[in-house]
Design brief:
The chain is 37% helix and 28% strand. The protein is α/β, with parallel strands linked by helices. A hairpin with a 2-residue loop joins strand 4 and strand 5. The mean pLDDT is 90.
């Protein structure tokens, strides 16, 4: 059952019965001999200005869910409803305006940045898509985005390899924010960072949410982080949502044995 508090607020994302199975092929003719049932009828909601934590061990289907929401993978069945608009079957061209509203922060900050582009060029891609004119207006907006994530304006001319992991993740966040999204999917955004840096990124995400009224889908296997940042938690195992509750309720009185073992 979905948390009632979220249902009372404006729902920004409503995922209903989302399913994705991948074929297993073998032999010379690559015949289908089985299926990997990555996601099996997943349901959850994210209210405006709130954070849902999607937790579970590696391989449970969390990132597959994220890719389907972004339409990087097509779901086999189910609905993805963004602000009352079903985007489950929209084409790539029709999806373009929704991509501005739904952004992602990747797990690997270095792998998600083009090493041949400066930080400024990477972030400016979003400004170009938004139609921000070249010149002073675009430079001012770029400086504002970098300052927003705790980077100086002169870092715009540097390349990704010149930054630490935490700084590169800040760049990834700035790039996601460049198109003014309302929903940000954070796919294990701190798991590749040093423990000393993780708290800084979590606090930054928290501050940005309050300042910009963002909603987050926060994918993680770290329950300590989820307990600090998220309003609601969905526990995923083997493609299924095993338990779904408000964070405080789930931590104080978990119902499912799998949730209890994770805690």
């Amino acid at each position: 059952m979905m948390p009632t508090e979220s249902s009372q607020k404006s729902i920004i994302l409503d995922v209903q019965g989302l399913t994705k199975h991948f074929p297993i092929r073998s032999g010379f003719w690559q015949k289908v001999t089985g299926w990997v049932r990555a996601v099996n009828g997943v349901d959850f909601r994210i209210a405006a200005g709130r954070t849902l934590g999607l937790v579970g061990e590696s391989g449970c289907g969390k990132s597959t869910v994220a890719r389907m929401i972004l339409k990087l993978l097509e779901p086999d069945s189910g609905k993805i409803v963004y602000r009352d608009q079903d985007i489950s079957r929209v084409s790539g061209k029709e999806m373009k305006p929704f991509r501005r509203k739904i952004q992602i922060v990747f797990q690997d900050p270095y792998g998600s940045l083009n090493p041949r582009m400066t930080i400024g060029q990477s972030v400016e891609e979003g400004l170009r898509i938004l139609g921000v004119p070249r010149g002073r207006q675009r430079r001012d907006r770029l400086e504002e985005l970098l300052n927003m994530v705790g980077l100086s304006a002169d870092s715009a001319d540097r390349y990704p390899h010149e930054f630490s992991g935490g700084q590169r993740q800040r760049v990834g966040i700035a790039r996601a924010l460049s198109v003014n999204p309302s929903l940000v999917i954070c796919d294990e955004p701190i798991s590749a960072l040093d423990v000393s840096i993780q708290a800084q990124i979590i606090n930054l995400l928290n501050d940005l949410q309050q300042r910009l009224e963002l909603s987050y889908l926060f994918i993680s296997h770290d329950l300590n982080v989820v307990g600090y940042l998220c309003n609601d938690v969905a526990v995923m195992y083997n493609g299924y949502i095993m338990e779904y509750a408000a964070t405080e309720t789930l931590f104080e009185s978990p119902v499912h044995p799998y949730t209890q073992s994770l805690l």
